[in-house]
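Operator note (shift B, R.M.): manual run for Transcriptional regulatory protein, C terminal requested after the automated queue skipped it. Running by hand, logging everything below so the morning shift can see what happened. Input copied straight from the record, untouched. If output looks odd, do not overwrite the archive copy; leave it for review.
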Amino acid sequence: KEFDLLHYLAVRPGQVVSKRELLTEVWRMAYGGADKTVDVHLSWLRRKLGESAQAPRYLQTVHGVGVKIVDPGA
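Run finished. Output pasted below as returned.
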């Protein structure tokens, strides 16, 4: 699912995507408070990208809204 998550965000650069949308579109699950699933996969993905939530390079969290992928060179 990490690749699916990365792909979903990558085709929407700069667009904030909610956890609810990620659960619906990437996991094909109805939202039921399972947003920790998204958090865990984002954490694994960040680790593989060589970043952390405290020092993001590619995946930026917008508190209370969602997450977006950005170009660190832009």
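Quick read of the result: The chain has a mean pLDDT of 91. The radius of gyration is 11 Å.
Leaving this for review. - R.M.
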